[in-house]
């Protein structure tokens, strides 16, 4: 009898551990379905067109010589740096120890869900291309600036979630992305130069969608 | 029959135990989230920088890429307030009685081509779109009044808020219909037309 119920418990535990990540993340697949599972690369495509919300427009050009390059792993900080992303208020706060470095509105997922939890930055690029969506929701954006990809044990890096700059919309404080954390380019440029190799990103709350 | 009963019983027990485990996991996750939230100070969306030097107040807002700055000067003259807006040079000047002009956080279009201002009124708010360069939309037309154009072109909806830009030419307008439904529109600046959307941009 005990053996029988133990087998029930065993099957239930397996089912729960299988369904739990799917339910909590509501089947989050990739931030950018067009780049899903592709290894991100530094990509600068000047004079290229971007597509978003059925609109075509010129993507801003990027000239690396104008920018200091920040390479993850080469910077150290005396105090622990943490980035908090509050999906409920659509706000980002960056702290070094107890000192506030930045507080700014962001745009999280509208068409795709932004994952919650504690993340580490695993890769940074001054610029890359992001694409995905279908039909009226299709987007293809070259020269996405200041990209900081994050991941943890539950959300693999290959799913492409990141903090990055935004030149195609200006609707911060409201959900507007496919799962990434969109920031004003002038803000994310500062954050890109500030993060250290042990910087944690904590995403929490529920987006107002 | 007995066999099916046994199967059903097994499924019921497994479902029940699975639900219990999931419930425990959700509760644990919620407690962790609450611990994380307790460590964070209050969160507020920053407003544009304000420098007070009465009787003139100055408010400024950088463009999304940081290359330009919109400056608003607010000057009290008797019972009126004189507003002056600059980017590189003067783009707009207005004197108002008991009106409040502000620069919304998402004022700049993503390509720095346009800007919009909010005028808060007692019953309705007006939103004015300008070329950041100060150029005219057409002869003698310096700005577009979104509220006025919306009332003229779209019936059965009331503007609740203009939040920002969905694309370099598209302004997001959140409205409420006469039946109480929340509906978003895009205002396409070059064509001065409104596009009703299926997605509500909260």
Assign a percent range to the helix content of chain A: 10-25%
Succession of helices and strands of chain B: HEEEEEEEEEHEEEE
Order of the strands making up the biggest sheet of chain A: 5-4-3-10-6-7-8-9
The biggest sheet of chain B, with number of strands, parallel, antiparallel or mixed sense and barrel status, is:
5 strands, antiparallel
Distance between the termini of chain A: 48 Å
Q: Order of helices and strands of chain A, N to C?
A: HEEEEEEEEEHE
Q: Can you summarize the main beta sheet of chain A?
A: 8 strands, mixed
What is the average of the pLDDT values of chain B? Answer: 83
Approximate strand percentage of chain B: 35-45%
DSSP summary, beta strand count of chain A = 10
* Low-confidence runs of chain A: none
Layout of helices and strands:
The complex is a heterodimer of chains A (209) and B (202).
Chain A lengths: L1 H24 L23 E4 L2 E4 L22 E6 L4 E6 L2 E7 L11 E16 L6 E13 L10 E5 L14 E4 H10 L5 E5 L5
Chain B lengths: L1 H37 L10 E5 L2 E7 L6 E9 L2 E7 L3 E8 L2 E3 L11 E7 L4 E7 L11 E3 H8 L3 E11 L2 E8 L4 E7 L4 E4 L6
How would you portray this structure in words?
The complex is a heterodimer of chains A (about 210) and B (about 200). With about 210 residues, chain A is of the alpha+beta class. Chain A is built from two helices and ten strands; from the N terminus they run H-E-E-E-E-E-E-E-E-E-H-E. Chain A has helices at about 1-25, 185-195, and strands at about 50, 55-60, 80-85, 90-95, 100-105, 115-130, 140-150, 160-165, 180-185, 200-205. In chain A, the strands form two sheets. An eight-stranded mixed β-sheet of chain A has the order 5-4-3-10-6-7-8-9, with helices on one face. A two-stranded antiparallel sheet of chain A has the order 1-2. The longest helix of chain A has 24 residues, at about 1-25. Chain A is globular. The termini of chain A are far apart. With about 200 residues, chain B is an alpha+beta fold. Chain B has helices spanning about 1-40, 145-155, and strands at about 50-55, 55-60, 70-75, 80-85, 90-95, 100, 115-120, 125-130, 145, 155-165, 170-175, 180-190, 195. Chain B has a five-stranded antiparallel β-sheet, with no helix packed on it. In chain B, strand 2 (about 55-60) and strand 3 form a beta hairpin. The model of chain B has no long low-confidence stretch (mean pLDDT about 85). The chains are: A alpha+beta (about 210), B alpha+beta (about 200).
């Amino acid at each position: 009898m005990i053996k029988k119920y133990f087998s029930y418990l065993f099957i239930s535990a397996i089912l729960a551990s299988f369904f739990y990540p799917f339910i909590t993340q509501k089947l989050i697949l990739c931030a950018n379905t067009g780049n899903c599972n592709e290894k991100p690369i530094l990509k600068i495509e000047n004079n290229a067109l971007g597509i978003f919300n059925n609109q075509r427009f010129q993507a801003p050009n990027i000239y690396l010589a104008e920018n200091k390059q920040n390479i993850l792993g080469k910077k150290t900080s005396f105090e622990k740096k943490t980035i908090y992303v509050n999906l409920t208020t659509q706000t980002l706060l960056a702290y070094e120890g107890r000192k506030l470095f930045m507080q700014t509105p962001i745009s999280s997922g509208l068409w795709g869900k932004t994952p919650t939890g504690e993340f580490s930055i695993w890769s940074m690029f001054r610029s890359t291309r992001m694409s995905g969506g279908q039909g009226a929701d299709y987007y293809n954006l070259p020269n996405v600036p200041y990209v900081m990809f994050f991941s943890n044990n539950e959300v693999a890096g290959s799913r492409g979630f990141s903090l990055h700059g935004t030149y195609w919309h200006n609707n911060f404080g409201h959900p507007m992305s496919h799962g990434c954390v969109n920031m004003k380019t002038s803000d994310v440029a500062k954050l890109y130069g500030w993060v250290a190799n042990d910087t944690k990103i904590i995403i929490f709350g529920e987006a107002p969608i | 029959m007995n066999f099916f009963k046994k199967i059903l019983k097994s499924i019921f027990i497994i479902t029940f135990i699975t639900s219990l485990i999931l419930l425990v996991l959700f509760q644990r996750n919620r407690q962790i989230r609450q611990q994380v939230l307790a460590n964070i100070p209050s969160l507020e969306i920053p407003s544009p920088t304000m420098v007070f030097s009465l009787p003139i107040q100055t408010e400024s807002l950088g463009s999304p890429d940081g290359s330009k700055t919109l400056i608003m000067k607010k000057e009290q003259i008797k019972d009126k307030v004189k507003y002056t807006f600059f980017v590189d040079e003067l783009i707009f000047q207005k004197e108002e009685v008991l009106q409040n002009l502000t620069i919304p956080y998402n004022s700049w279009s993503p390509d720095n081509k346009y800007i919009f201002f909010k005028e808060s009124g007692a019953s309705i708010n007006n939103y004015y779109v300008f070329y950041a360069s100060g150029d005219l939309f057409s002869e003698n037309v310096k700005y577009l009044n979104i509220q006025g154009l919306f009332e003229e072109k779209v019936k059965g909806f009331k503007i609740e808020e203009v939040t920002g830009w969905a694309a370099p030419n598209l302004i997001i307008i959140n409205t409420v219909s006469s039946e109480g439904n929340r509906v978003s529109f895009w205002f396409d600046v070059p064509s001065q037309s409104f596009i009703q959307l299926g997605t509500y941009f909260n």
